[in-house]
Design brief:
Strand order of the largest sheet: 2-1-3-4-5
Structural class: alpha/beta
Number of domains: 1
Distance between the termini: 20 Å
Largest sheet: 5 strands, parallel
Number of helices: 5
CATH superfamily: Response regulator
CATH class: Alpha Beta
Order of helices and strands: EHEHEHEHEH
CATH topology: Rossmann fold
CATH architecture: 3-Layer(aba) Sandwich
Shape: globular
Strand content: 15-25%
Length: about 120
């Protein structure tokens, strides 16, 4: 199996859409909230994280901040996904490696993921 991607989003349908777009090339692990996602990230040390901004218990920007503070995870590529396009600046300032506004273009998702997974860390 390929590289591991953690998808953190409270919407089942969006997690399913991401899996369908990325089409089985990767191993997916899913979390419905930020706390669950952060736990998975710390345990699995995935190759990439896709995190929604608005999630229960711990939002995507807070999850990103926790990842960036952890020396073992600091270089992990994190893409922030949100329906709030105005969050781009905040996401990039917080250390996001990519930003996708919902609804995102499937080709843009694929290109972002492929680029980040090919970039040496």
């Amino acid at each position: 199996m390929g590289k591991t991607i953690v998808i953190c989003d409270d919407e089942d349908s969006l997690r399913e859409l991401i899996r369908a777009i990325l089409n089985g090339e990767y191993r997916f692990v899913e979390a419905a909230d930020g706390h669950e996602g952060l736990d998975l990230i710390r345990r699995l040390k995935p190759d990439l994280v896709l995190a929604d901004v608005m999630m229960p218990r711990l939002g995507g920007l807070e999850l990103l901040a926790e990842v960036r503070r952890d020396p073992a995870l600091g270089a992990l590529p994190v893409v922030v996904v949100t329906a709030f396009a105005g969050q781009r600046a905040a996401a990039m300032e917080a250390g996001a490696d990519g930003f996708l506004a919902k609804p995102f273009d499937p080709d843009e998702l694929m290109a972002t993921v492929e680029e980040l997974l090919q970039t040496p860390r």
